[in-house]
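Fold this sequence, please.
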Amino acid sequence: MHPAFVELNTLTRDNQAEYELELRYFSEQNFVGQQIPGYESNKAILTRKAANALLLAQRDFIQLGYKIKIFDAYRPQTAVDFFVNWASDLQDLKNKSEYYPNVEKSNLFSEGYIAARSGHSRGSAVDLTLVDLESGQEIDMGSPWDFFDPISWPTSEKVTEQQRANRRLLAATMQKHGFASIKEEWWHFYLVDEPFPNTYFQFPVK
């Protein structure tokens, strides 16, 4: 691992502050339907700068009765290259009905869902949601993680008012601690003042 990066749960000082981890690309539970090259463990890694900022957000969420659940953090360029190759194989539609039912696979590039570069590979972007501390369940955001559809846009009006409020809570707290969102994914945040804005790393998640 690059010396400027850190495993997120090594920074927490008590069990309550630990992140819930479900690295979907380390499993078959993703839009490809298999474990993705470059993911060798269920660990979340970020640049130390992004990790420190995320820990502040985690503490705020805990005060509100929630905690962060992470689906993806640093993503090796190896994985991004794999996604590009997968997207070019128009015969492989294994998980289309679950992850992109309303988008033709041939349009995943043109509609921005797959790209040759990802901010995740720079090490300061994270995909996450919130878990209710009392129930242990994810709060309802109106669409699942990595669902390629306009309903996943943070500003979508196709979700309920409560779901919009949940998205706003997530975004406002992340923005408070230096993160910004993107228009297509309610779950994706990146550190605005990221330390490696032009570097795409290859080392595996392990």
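The chain has one domain: 5-191. The radius of gyration is 16 Å.
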